[in-house]
Amino acid sequence: MSEPVLSARGLSKSFPSGDARLEVLRGVDLDVAQGESISVRGESGSGKSTLLNLLAGLDAPDSGTVAWEGSRDTGARRRASYLGMVFQSFYLVPELDALANVLLARRILGGADRAARDRALELLGSVGLAGRAHHLPSHLSGGERQRVALARALMNSPRLILADEPTGNLDEGTGSSVVDLLLGLCLSANAALVLVTHNGLHAAKTRRSLVLHAGRLEAPLTA
Amino acid sequence: MPWYVHLALRQLFPTGRWFPFFTLISTLGVALGVALLVIVMSVMGGFAYEIRHMIVDTEGEVQVVARGGIADYPSLVKRVESVPGVEAATPYARDEVMIRFKDKPAYPVLRGLDLSSVERVTQLGRYVRVGSLDDLDDDSIILSAQLAASVGASVGDAIEVYSPLIVDRLSADEVFLPRQVRVVGILEIGHQQLDSSTAYGTLRLAQDLYGLGSTVHGIDVRLKPGVNEDDAAARINAALPEDIRALSWEDSFSDFLWVLNLERGMIFFLLLFIVIVAAFSVTSSLLISVVRKTREIGLLGALGGRPVHVAACFCAQGLLIGILGTAAGLALGFTALAFRNNVVLWITRVTQREEVLRRFYQFSELPSHTSGSTVALIVALTVAISTLAGLLPAWKAARLKPVEALRSE
Question: What is the ipTM score, two decimals?
């Protein structure tokens, strides 16, 4: 059996809170297989974003390990090729048009040649923005910005997509279409997805649903 | 192109905006500093260059002098001319005299020229505005323009020349009559000091006036093109007796040149502070940019950008502003230099001070000479200072942790 795309063991994380420490994660275990989609729900402040940051290698756990395909190398260089991230606030670079924002992921990985540009245009086409490649983020709607962010996350053909409440700033209808698009793109790219969301309907669209409660990942009470 | 340079370019020149305000102001600050440095250093260089030209044009590049004069000058001229690198040599005699025309006296230096060789060494003929060097004989004289104007003499007038020997003769109870000479030319070099206090006659006339007999005061030497003056002076010295010395024009005017270089150095140092102040403004703008773009910096980390590359993005912005500002400053500076005389002329006409300018600054036009090494120094220092201006913002950006930057409001 092949190594899981993402494997977390005993992840714990706490933050200072006055004189004490607030334990946010208490020994989280998680395995994500290739092409699998998982949703993580939880109350506000339950530690969903903290978990995602640890899984992305952006933050270090107090204890526990994160491995990508068995390797504990989660540094910047590997992250650029292995991981795609989608955020609630889109985080597009305002000075770059949609195409350049998508290409930025490839530039950071190293080299944005003609083939990369063609792929970026193809990705923008696949998220329905072929005609808006040269529009600045300020000229795009919220849903369009998030679709540009999806295209950027997929630019380097990552094995794993981590999405942190990607519909948080969108209305219900737009949010639903963005999640459908995200799931479809991950499926066609055979990329694993960890989707952090508040929305039960969106969570239900993933293959496996988990709830972060009291610092641990649990299966939801009702399927 | 590395992503951090691409992003730096895009942040300075975002898509759809030609020249953003931050870029414009930062570039303008650097450009003004560079332009001022170029203009001032070129004008100061122009003064030095013009002075060198005037000295070399009127006295050659090397002077051979001896305490008490040179007696057997024809053989010495031949010996000097045989030194490698020497084009020609001409003897001269020079001292102060008093001239008088219609009761108006003046006290110029009268320089006696050997007419057979002087034009092979000096460019005096070029500066004769009325008449010609060929019109000179032992009973005539050429006056510099302001000297002629000050005594009211013009070509054809007869003037009296009083030799310094008059004092000796009077003390010996001898009657000493002034020498009557005709003015056969007016010469204008363009340097106030030379144009107001110099007269030219034949070598014979000067020797008579100074009681030199067949002795001369020195020998002017012109070198072949490209020959170093100091090297040539050293070679000539090797061929001369020990009591006769050859000095390059730079040696002869070393004190003056040292003061000139000191002035240039001090002004360069002071004007460089304009570039440094402009660099502080770049630093301040980039620091604001780091704060404003905190979440974007976090994003770059999340996308796999390394801190050193995030830092390079901000350093590159300082570098690019430095390059742009330097280019704009050079263009502005050289354009201002091209029109400098029009500007000065306009100011002097409006203020009616043309004569004052000439009297105090010696030149009829504002000189300019830009040396390549000075421009290279200005460019190198400005680009380096501007790049350094990006270091503090770069360091701040590199220290941001992606996870904290993404969380910032």
Answer: 0.86
